[in-house]
Protein 1
Amino acid sequence: MAQILLVEPDTILAKTYAAFLQRAGHHVLRAGDAQSAINACDAVQPDCIVLEIQLPQHNGIEFLYELRSHADWQRIPVIILSQRTTDQLSMDAPKMLELGINGFCYKPDTSLTTLQVLIDDILQAVSS
């Protein structure tokens, strides 16, 4: 069972994603903003982070810079799950590599099962 930190400001979506991932065998911590996500990482280092870039107060990119500034958190896999496309976010491959992003999912095109498979594949690759 992996510890997943889900950073999603939309409460309904967060509950839906969390319930599905829990049924898939993961333990899910939820955070609705960047500061809550940092606090959650402090409390329990997650095995993987699923992150919506559009967050209140500090955006997801700022959160990633903060996350990666901590030595203990530099290797935590991050999956972006966003309403915005990579083009809208100006997220080219070098930028994603710099921020340690392991996957990118555009919400309207990503099923819950697809997200779960991506998480499981990334966790398996990291543990190998």
Protein 2
Amino acid sequence: MRRAFAHMLLAGGLALALTSGALAQEPPAMQGKSAEEKARLKDLIEGAKKEGAVSYWDAIIQPETNDALAAAFRKHYGLAGSFKVNYTLSATAALITRVDQEISADRVTIDVAAVGSPTWVF
């Protein structure tokens, strides 16, 4: 009887350890999200992993900041250090022109474009 109880405790402890380990591996982007939102994010993250990179053009962030930003991005979404974050610093007018050209050609290669031009954005 004692032995059976000890085995049950051991099995329960192992199950708890495995469950808490799986939860601990959940990327910060998933924490506190609904099951539906977690599923949506998981699909996006898996798609990004298959692509292997994200591309962003910016008219504000300086190159010195890019490494810290890229590392934080990878950590937030649980991406490996080998996941590429392609960054291009651009003047506002050049960025707007590039985005407009890509949209017009239906060949968008930029995942994120950050520009301080509300009149263009809206």
Protein 3
Amino acid sequence: MPSSLRALPAWTVRLLVPRHLDGGVTAYHAAFREHVAMPLRPGTLEELRWYFRARQAAPADAEQRFDEASRAFSAPRFQRLYRAWMERGDPVLEATLSPVLRDAIRTAFRSD
């Protein structure tokens, strides 16, 4: 989703919440910002790139590093990134460094 949003000149994300879950809207906003809008730091990106490649190769000599990376990148955001990376390669990861989505979302939330 994030790379496709970057390609559009304008977009809107709407969250529809049933009345009985109204109390969770703030948590949904925070999760959206964390998982979609936060650019990765270059060091995190390099570790993520290593992990994705290691996931494909299953290296026996880096078992501890792989286990640590597996725990660090277990969030749904990274699982989706892995699937996108498998389909489209490294450009998917490079896009995670961009602050474009974060800035657009900050602007949108300020105007609400």
